[in-house]
Amino acid sequence: MQITSKLPNLEPSIFSVMGGLAHQYNAVNLSQGFPDFKGDQKLIDLVNKAMNDGHNHYAPMRGVFSLREAIANKYDRLYRSSYHPENEITITAGATQAIYAAITAFVKPNDEVLVLRPAYDCYIPTIELSGAKAISIQLTYPDYKVNWNEVKAKISSKTRMFIINTPHNPSGTVFSKADMMQLQEITKDTNIIVLSDEVYEHMVYDGEQHHSVCLFPELKSRSFISASFGKTFHNTGWKIGYACAPKYLMDEFVKVHEFSVFSIHHPTQKALAVYLETPSHYDELSAFFQTKRDLFLDLIKGSKFTFTPSKGTYFQALNYANITEENDYEFAVRLTKEKGIASIPFSVFNVNRLDEKMLRFCFAKTDDTLKRGAEILNSI
Ligand code: PMP
Ligand code: GLN
């Protein structure tokens, strides 16, 4: 039988490649973004309780109502922004499925979707599965700032969506209020839907603020937010997240959601609904991860790597131009095999594999792991 691949040029996921090598070479694994410590026992107990209480069958299609209410309360509390739990919030299988459903529901063949690069790896394949074209805007070392004039120049009558990600994986930069105002201005009076990937919302450092699209009324009216409980509550393997958007957008989103998963793991939703009632569970995250970032940076301050401290996410980007001319992919592979430390090379997220000698290290790790990692980095 002959088949035609819908994604003929897709390469193996960098997270599988580097994670596999880390395992094979028993390296300190700072590559894929997940914590190597256990999440809160209270949350695990709540999931167990929900299972024992019998919440083991299909959940409602849009998600358990009390969880949607808890999410609505969070947006009200943090941003004074209202999303109606009835029809403006949907629980998803991680942020990945929220992104998939948002793109698939609106993006048609020959549409264009603006993507800022380096870009998290699920955006472009999902755009291409819809038969549309990703229009890339490359952000560059050292500050990865958006040139809004370049964005304006790339908008056309075919532009259907603009995907942003703040705090930004992999650079660790965050959009300023001025960036958001520009975005709001540029998209005003257009048919562009904004997909705002905010999975690192609760990891913002040095007193900076997370500027969610929901804080800007005109922007909010055309935007989806994608979010991830896996990232927020240290259980990435649970694959549970959510999307928020105004009703007229969410009504279309759920048509894709319904036929890609229908509904999400029920007991976990019950547990998260209770867990979210305590704001400190997310309020304290930035301070928690800032301490880890500071420890990591303090430990490697004498190394040959150079850096700007991460402003958000749990990733630290390091530049190694002082060390070698090798391209970042080869260098990341060699560091794993020969030095015993795994990272993620930026180039896989860039236009034409642009190599700026940048590696991404995940600092959501125990202090012991960070110390072992730093020792190796200092020896290079
Ligand atoms: N967006 C970004 C920027 C990410 O780093 C990740 C990885 N967590 C996701 C989306 C996907 O999140 P999830 O694991 O909840 O699907
Ligand atoms: N979001 C995680 C990261 O950026 C990886 C998720 C995945 O493996 N697809 O490292």
Can you walk me through this structure?
By secondary structure, the protein is α/β, with parallel strands linked by helices. It folds into 2 domains: 114 residues, Aspartate Aminotransferase, domain 1, CATH 3.90.1150; 223 residues, Aspartate Aminotransferase, domain 2. It is 40% helix and 14% strand. It contains 15 helices and 12 strands. Strands 2-8-7-6-5-3-4 form a 7-stranded mixed β-sheet, with helices on both faces. Helix 2 crosses helix 11, helix 3 runs parallel beside helix 11 and helix 4 runs parallel beside helix 5. The site of 4'-deoxy-4'-aminopyridoxal-5'-phosphate has 15 residues, from helix 4 and helix 9.
Can I get a quick summary?
This protein has 380 residues and is an alpha/beta fold.
